[in-house]
Write a structure and sequence with these properties.
Strand content: 15-25%
Helix content: 25-40%
Radius of gyration: 21 Å
CATH architecture of the largest domain: 2-Layer Sandwich
Shape: globular
Number of domains: 2
CATH superfamily of the largest domain: Nonribosomal peptide synthetase, condensation domain
Structural class: alpha+beta
Distance between the termini: 67 Å
Number of helices: 10
Length: 442
């Protein structure tokens, strides 16, 4: 019998593996709403075939002794577990599925580290993921597909690629990626001279009022909402992503002022993904992280056009810069100079020591969903797609956006140790307010 192929963990996977916490699992959730219903047998068959077409996803963590120098992925020909589930429809089904995505990561020890749930609840209005009142994002009129990824193995763009392949196989229709939107022309320029020093401790998200509960609660809180898609005037020097980034910064500055937090520079982590979106897309954790800084002075201003322009210069320069996914320090940490147990302990200790310098929050914008996600006759094409990134402490809060069918889909996700459902709703409302203010800027 041929031994299974093994692949050493890349840098991002290994750092994530070292920092795994059971109380706040590192999961990515992609939620797509379809107007119709899906056949269970056909969906299982299509998803399995999609996994086979992207073999890097059919894998599990290979067991090994404590003194091994590398974690390794072990590729498998078939799944070890049933990856597709169909919760009983009815009130609470969507809430429960979201709760599982926030609290229970697909295990790394069973192939594949991904889970798909199809929730059917015609006309049912669900409460939010933290138990509070929902909005239009919580109304299921057909089928909600919830794809949960273990972030140690996969990221959001890779999950979207898997979902697009599943849709193509299920519906028999072309789900190729659309051409990317046209960006402002011109060579990237250096950051503005007043860019805050990267060595200054960054602002933390002020503590809100976490929901009372009798014991420890796993996972994150989550709110989905739908907003008008920001308009980008022709010839504008800044993109919709820049507007969203500024709205995120203004939201955090507003929140911290309301809660009397110490004034410090904000730093917002932004994933950048340069992979192709077609069937050749490498599956795994392929994004690199950059940090966009904001000084307190530039966020306490009425000159929004100037702020938007500076943000555009910074984001373009950061995107154009070539750098390792998590920086040079992570590359050194994951070099196999000693057993993974020793390097894991060092990584966790350094992460705790560096907490004051960690970015304030993470903002991730997929942009226009590049795939139709068309499941064909009967099920239809996705009319709403949300995705969310982990919100583990010390950041404790993430914002993620995507656009589908001419609407902006926002996910606000938070650590339950830092914020409660009412706090999440307030942050959502502040984001909508400040996004509208950037729209009004000439």
């Amino acid at each position: 019998m041929t031994a299974p192929l093994r692949i050493p963990f890349p840098v991002v996977d290994e750092v994530s593996r070292h920092c795994v916490q059971e109380e706040e699992p590192e999961t990515v959730l992609i939620e797509a709403h379809l107007p119709g219903e899906l056949d269970a047998g056909r969906l299982r068959k299509a998803f399995l075939e999609a996994l086979r077409r992207h073999p890097r996803i059919l894998m599990r963590e290979s067991p090994g002794p404590w003194y091994r120098r590398r974690y390794e992925w072990e590729l498998t020909d078939e799944p070890d577990v049933e990856a597709v589930g169909f919760p009983p429809p009815g009130p609470g089904s969507l809430q429960d599925a979201r709760g599982r995505a926030m609290a229970v990561a697909p295990p790394l020890t069973a192939s594949p580290p991904i889970r798909l749930e199809a929730v059917t609840a015609p006309g049912a209005t669900e409460p939010g993921a933290d138990g509070g009142a929902g909005d239009g994002a919580d109304t299921v009129t057909g089928t909600a597909l919830l794809l949960t990824l273990n972030h140690t193995a996969l990221d959001g763009p890779a999950g979207l690629r898997i979902l697009a392949t599943t849709a193509e196989i299920y519906g028999g229709r072309d789900n190729s990626a659309a051409a990317p939107p046209v960006r402002p022309s011109g060579a990237p320029r250096a950051d503005a001279p007043d860019t805050p020093s990267p060595w200054a401790p960054s602002a933390r998200v002020a503590r809100g009022a976490p929901d009372p509960h009798p014991g420890p609660r796993r996972g994150n809180g989550l709110l989905h909402t739908e907003l008008p898609l920001p308009h980008r005037p022709k010839g504008s020097p800044y993109t919709v992503n820049d507007r969203l980034m500024v709205a995120t910064a203004l939201t955090l500055a507003h929140w911290n002022r309301e809660h009397g937090a110490r004034v410090r520079p904000l730093r917002i982590t932004m994933p950048v993904d340069d992979r192709p979106r077609d069937a050749t897309m490498p599956i795994g954790n392929g994004t690199r992280l950059v940090e966009v800084p904001f000084s307190p002075e530039e966020l306490d201003t009425s000159d929004l056009p100037a702020l938007l322009h500076r943000t555009a210069l910074r984001t373009r320069a950061l995107k154009a810069r070539s750098s390792p996914q998590l920086g040079h320090g992570a590359t050194l940490l994951t070099a196999p100079w000693g057993p993974v147990t020793a390097r894991g302990a060092l990584t966790r200790a350094l992460r705790r020591a560096a907490a004051p310098w960690m970015s304030t929050t993470l903002f991730s914008n997929i942009g226009r969903i590049p795939y139709p996600l068309d499941f064909g006759e009967g099920a239809g094409r996705a009319h709403a797609v949300w995705f969310s990134a982990p919100a583990r402490m010390p950041r404790g809060l993430t914002f993620a956006t995507a656009s589908t069918a001419g609407r902006l889909h926002l996910a606000v996700r938070w650590s339950r140790a830092l914020l409660g459902h009412d706090d999440g709703a307030r942050l959502r409302d502040l984001f909508a307010h400040h996004l509208h203010s950037t729209e009004a800027a000439p």
